[in-house]
Amino acid sequence: MKNLLVLLALILVTNNLHAQFKKDPIINLQNEDKTLLNWGYYLGVNQYDFQFEYENDIGQDVLVDKTFGFNVGLIGEMRINEFVDVRFEPGLLYSQRILGFPGFTTENEAIREVRSTYIRFPLLLKLSTKRFNNFKPFIIGGGYAAVNLGANEDSLDDNSSGTFRMKKNVYGYELGFGVDFYTEFFKFTPSIRGVFALTNELVADDDPSSPWTGNLNAVRTRGIFINFTFE
């Protein structure tokens, strides 16, 4: 899926860039940005990481093996003026991270697989430049709330039973940039986003001296994702 999305993006971007540098380019969708409300959807890929805060600096960090996940969602946009839009982008995001804890001799004790399915509710402000022919760069940022369906927050098992627990409700912010490309039939937008959780997502083990969570003060998600938007 990741390779298919990237290939589609490259084809659309290449065709649009070629059209922009013709002597007299055709201006597509001239009224696209004049309506008060706009709708669309997005597909994308992500790579999520963790930021750890430790009780004591003992020189042995938790290792994170990052993999690619996917994200899909809808877009509702309200136009403020020519350069400013407010966007609501609810979506579903799947991510998998494998944690390696130091100090263990067996894989069953050292490795914890963290699979997360987030339902996300970002409210974002999009600041665009003036449109140039059929493309328009922008920056975007704002806050989000998310529900992690794979958090295991209420589980009675903890790491001593092989379960790494996280908090279900997460809050944070995201920042990014991208370019709107106006094709003949729709607006296509690739963008890159950075995601930064403010919530401490760690649910500590029941044992305060746990070899997995005893030295952890906080665990927060950090991630990057690439979205391809169709409006």
Please tag this protein with its features.
Beta-barrel_OMP_2; 10% helix; Porin; Porin family protein; signal; mainly beta; 10-stranded antiparallel beta sheet
Give a short summary of the structure.
The chain has 231 residues and is mainly beta.
Order of helices and strands: HEEEEEHEEEEE
Treating each run of at least 4 consecutive H or I residues as one helix, how many helices?
Answer: 2
Overall pLDDT metric = 89
Radius of gyration: 21 Å
Number of strands: 10
CATH topology heading? Porin
Question: In the CATH hierarchy, what is the architecture at level 2?
Answer: Beta Barrel
Largest sheet: 10 strands, antiparallel
CATH first level: which class?
Mainly Beta
Low-confidence runs (pLDDT<50, min 5 residues)? 17-21
Percent strand: over 45%
Q: Into which percent range does the helicity of residues fall? A: under 10%
Structural class: mainly beta
CA distance, first residue to last residue = 20 Å
Q: Based on CA inertia axes, which overall geometry fits?
A: elongated
The total domain count is: 1
